[in-house]
Write a structure and sequence with these properties.
This protein is mainly alpha-helical. It is 57% helix and 5% strand. It has 45 helices and eleven strands. The strands form four sheets. The protein has a four-stranded mixed β-sheet, covered by helices on one side. It has a three-stranded antiparallel β-sheet with strand order 7-6-9, with no helix packed on it. Helix 25 packs parallel to helix 27, helix 34 packs parallel to helix 37 and helix 39 runs parallel beside helix 41. It starts with a helix and ends with a strand. GO terms for molecular function: enzyme regulator activity. This is 26S proteasome non-ATPase regulatory subunit 2. InterPro entries: 26S_Psome_Rpn1 (IPR016643), ARM-like (IPR011989), ARM-type_fold (IPR016024), Proteasome/cyclosome_rpt (IPR002015), RPN1_C (IPR041433), RPN1_N (IPR040892). Belongs to the proteasome subunit S2 family.
Amino acid sequence: MSAIVAPRKEAKKDEETEEDKELQVELKLLVNKITGNDQSLIQPALDMMKYLVRTSTTSMTSVPKPLKYLAIYYDDLKSTHQKMGNGQMKKSLADVISLLAMGTAGGEAAKKNRDCLIYCLQGTMSEIGDWGHEYIRQLEKEIVLQWSFNCEKAADTLVALIHDIVAFNCTHHAEIQACDLLMEVDLLHLLPAYVSKTNYQRMCLYLLSCSKYVDDVERAKIMRLVGEQYLRFGEHTRAMITAIQMNDSEMVDRIFSVCTDRVTLYQLAFICARHNFPVKLDQDMEHSEKIENILSNSHLSTYFLTLARELDIMEPKSPQDVYKSWLEPIPPRLIILGENLDSARQNLASSLVNGFVNAGFGSDKLLTVDGGNKWIYRNKEHGMLSATAALGLLHLWDVDGGLTPIDKYLYSADDYIKSGALLALGIVNCRVRNECDPALALLGDYVAAESEVLQVGAILGLGLAYAGTHRQDVIELLLPLVPSAKSLEVVGVASLSCGLVSVGEPNNQVSATVLDRIIELNGTEALRSPHLRLVALGLSLCYFGVRDAVDVPTEATNILEEPFKTFIQTMLLMCAYAGTGDVLIIQELLHIVGEKVDLPKKEKKDKKEKRERKDKKDGKEQPADNQDKDGVTSIKAPKKTEWDHSMGQAMATLGVAVVSMGEDIGVEMVHRIFGDIVRYGDPSVRKACPLALALSSVSRPHPAAVDLLTKLAHDHDEEVAVNAAFGLGLIGAGTNNARLAAGLRQLAVYHARNPAQLFMVRFAQGLVHMGKGTLTFEASHTDRMLVDPLTMAGLLAPLVCLLDPYPLILGQSPYLLYLLSAALQPRWLLTLDADLNPLPVGVRVGQAVDVVGKAGTPKTIAGVRTHTTPVLLAGGERAELVSDRFEAAGMTLDGICVLRQVEE
């Protein structure tokens, strides 16, 4: 054994070859010449040393041999450099010392003193790229350190070197390093000089991804630079996306004016229409009529029905088809009372399910058939309102054909039915703009009606019909109700509607009026009303996506009493940074969640007495609070509203999900955090956890999220179970997920004796099969680069109500669930030709892959499947064209895409 090992050890000692020894001798000779007294030998020796270093070959994981052998002479060369007089030889020697300082020569002291940079600046400063990428990277590190140490002095001496480094990087496939350097030294304005047609896409994509992690001022600089570069190279669709991300309407209008290609103009219009972004077109523009038609979203219903016919799903579905109740065992209670037990709450659930499952198809098996009125009358009061409003979902986006079947209910003698028809009219017009303004004409007269029920339907209908339009005339019609209305329900709905209309654009008139009403109610019992949460949401929606601009209203709310102050300030912060993924804001919200709430002495005493009374009742079976003598479930709230001192923490829990949903890493973090919070948090926070978890995975049924929500749906706390059931519907919305549907059927059997939980489970079943699997609630679109404010607003409204589900959603305001209609969008890929007619083409569909900063031309999708358009895209999927005969006018295949034929 020793005989075998011994030669190996000896070979290791003798690993230096004869060539290495010759190189060492040669380098020592060159050093002697440089440090010697013969001036005529110094320059040739320096040139030879540079040549040996440049031509040395080595592996990527080891130091070049000339640098390794010269390390021992580092101090001698530095001493020689100090003794030399100024001249070309001194500069050449500085180049060599700078290069040696990059490696092990000089040790940590050389790196600490930034010798590499110092001697580089004293050197020739020519062709620095010839020393290689590692030398450039070392210079970049030391430049950043020097810049931060003495910015003003460094600027004069370093700018020339920075120009050389950026020029080298941009011509040697190191554009990412060039961007990093310029961002670190705040000289990003120098970059456009080095952007070319070959590297602009990679650089712009990287800069956009970096903009998420900088402050607002720097973010604006980066995005403006990126937008200008896209325009410079004719990438109008990418420039449009950047302009929408900045919320820069002037830039959007300019892109429309400078773009001359008809197909590209159509694609730009489809992007703006999907985001509900207002555009001012020049009326003299060619094809302006078609572009206006696209921007108005009047095409939605036609194209959606085309998709439905192509998929052969026009046949309407009944709630029973969704529930598949014949697969459920019949509970003993129903065997005793009869299988066809008619429950007001379950009829309400069926009405909602019927609307969402058949949304946009124009027909169903309950309301649009002969005798559809009978179904409405099987409900009570607000149930009748909700049943009638389902007609709006059935005729969603179909303004021309949907108003007639709803109009007849406006002549009903029952105010609840009439109010439901008003709400239905608003839902039909949601996201669609019509020159005739039918919604304003039909609903405007009822805003000031004597009946509070009619007022609510008209106000909410107008809010949905003109959501995101920023129409000043609609705001002026609704806003006077905020200070003047006596009913807090009307105040809440009016404030929320004003917030929906002005979402994403700060409206000082709306915010000032709503804020004044909140301050007026401060210190009164009215502040405890659940409707005040809708008022707070209306105010917050005005500041959606404004980031730092939310500081003014936040300061104004400091005079409010706790816990409402924390609640509204947290909501303002949440809406201002929604979808940004801002880590600092998430940390701030998590800090609020983790705070211990100190209850006033009186509240502590009441809570203790309540716990004692509850303990006495344990062991006795109590009848459900919301059942009448005949065992038929009513829709009245079983609990009296109480002041919740943890409401600020609950709002912060929801806020963490809203802010983090802009990026995948944030979503994964949220799932882990909420797993712990739901075990150890306060009751209010536990109620919010299922909602936050669902919001972070809307229309994306991740198995881990489904499992956790399913466990919570069996929770002993009724409100946690209700919210978890709703959350299951939200994460499976429009996916037709078979595993989730089977789980909900089992949940329905488990909660057969619990009317509130069963109602929400039924509604969740309807959401999973929403639009028969063709619709989605996902807020991100256009390859997940844009977050739609209106979709977020539509999702947030019911979620805020469900933070305390009994007073509103499970009480007298189930119609608030129809606010989800503002978030409805088809999850399609529809390809059109240059004349906007459907064009079937082959596409590859797979999971999207992040290619930011990756070298070469990496694949953008994984797990490829080939289909013919139109196709349905699941969350996180991306598509590519199969054939080279067509090319997309936009940057991605997502939503409605216009294709142009490639000329051979």
